[in-house]
Amino acid sequence: NSVGSGVGVGRSRSTNFGWLPKSSVYTRTGDKGTSSLYNGERRPKYDDTFHALGTVDELNSSIGIAHHYCKETGNGLDSKLVEIQCKLIELMSNIATPRNSTDGRRLEYTVFDQENVRLLELWIDEMDAKLPPLKHFILPSGGESAIFLHQARSVCRRAERIVSPLVESGVVDSEVGQYLNRLSDFFFVAARHAAKFEGQIENYYEQRRKDKPSNLVTREL
């Protein structure tokens, strides 16, 4: 919600504790079911753009959990995860500024750089080169860091699915969709990296056979 509508920041309100300045956290401008985009346009809260923004925000929260465990184990991913969280804020600015109905400085200010995609690819290649080749479907496993990175991967895939129609219609820059696509790959490789660093067991699926009672296989990375 945009700041400044309703009771203005700095105005006082009566409370049980006397007169206190109104918090800027809430503005009451969304009480009628709409929210404001960066270009000032107001849309219903169920608009596709807000679905996309909300899912990317959820992704950022998931990364925060993964970051906590990665930092505790010292697996080297924590600084990358913080960098990604910051990039997601920039990505959300692009989503919140419809490319087909915005012009001028706001459009230029919210461009999402292709270099962000290339950095993810560099990180992926560096980690993947040190991991065993994939021959089976990996199950979310490998310790707390890895599991929460897998969870972030799943949320990222959902964000990509929601953002894709906005990219196709010209509302969001194509680089945003590319970034989310690479980001889910990053989380997959990062989860395997974390499991290997921490000496954890990786679970993977293998098709069940008559001579094999289970399709669960475990191995050390």
TrEMBL record:
Molecular-function GO terms, alphabetical: ATP binding; corrinoid adenosyltransferase activity
Catalytic activity: cob(I)alamin-[corrinoid adenosyltransferase] + ATP = apo-[corrinoid adenosyltransferase] + adenosylcob(III)alamin + triphosphate
GO biological process, one term: cobalamin metabolic process
Xref: PANTHER family: CORRINOID ADENOSYLTRANSFERASE, CORRINOID ADENOSYLTRANSFERASE MMAB
Cobalamin adenosyltransferase-like domain: residues covered: 25-193
Official protein name in the record: Corrinoid adenosyltransferase MMAB
InterPro entries in UniProt: CblAdoTrfase-like, CblAdoTrfase-like_sf, PduO-typ
Naturally occurring in which organism (per UniProt): Paraglomus occultum
Assembly behavior: Homotrimer.
